[in-house]
Amino acid sequence: MAVKKDIFSRLDQIAKPEAILASNTSALDLNEIASVTSRPESVIGLHFFSPANVMKLLEIVRGEKTADPVIKTCMAFAKRIKKVATLVGVCPGFVGNRILFMRQHQANLVALEGAAVEKVDQVLFDFGFPMGAFQMADLAGLDLGWDKEKSNSETVKDRLCEQDRRGQKTGAGFYDYDEKRRPTPSSLVADLIKDHAEKSGVTRREFSDEEILDRCVLPMINEGAKILDEGIAMRASDIDVVYVYGYGWPIYRGGPMHYANSIGLGKVVEKLRHYQDKTGDDFWTPSPYLVNLAENGKKF
Q: Residues with catalytic annotation?
């Protein structure tokens, strides 16, 4: 944030008055960035997805003071460069990453509780994703958001980074990689996760493919419902567009919200409550917005 504020305050001083100041941030508060400029109405988020030359999605992030003509110009710009634009509001992670945080959180817990990293990824791959949660983390870089000076082995990811296993770029992360970046399951990582679970007092067990999929996908649907309730996304189809074009959600399943409709919102609520009872974790509390739709026989 300090770097963003420094750059945007300097841009504000040198850019022409009608210039649009756009940030590619994937999670930082756009309103805070805009606050250091004299033209918050001209500040907007243009969040490209990695790799930006391939991924079609462009999350256009509307700040509290972003002017409508600025949004219109950016929507037209997205079309010119052949991107699929989705307008979203400001919150940590916006739409795409906010939902992704929920999936990654559960994928990490499932691995800690006994499912092999490669099994979790295989279930997600079989569902239709181009890669699983841990392969994706390795591709992005495990040291994203990691601070070497403050690291204290608190998480599995911390421990991997401390051993310089930072993903594909270092040839090792959750997986081992050859010179062509092909992944191989790592016995070292399996032992490290097992050791971390023991030190954390986590009881390990076997997992079915169905539970792994539920644990990874249901929180995405629930978070999507919260995003709709808060007005961060205007409609469920916007969330689906984000996931199909930005995160490799299998297009034949139509995005997380469409997928929820296809299995039935009542079933989604029932499953969320099942995991809430099973784990005793408020993480699984169904969104009131989702519950209301389900109880009234409605869809997203």
A: 47
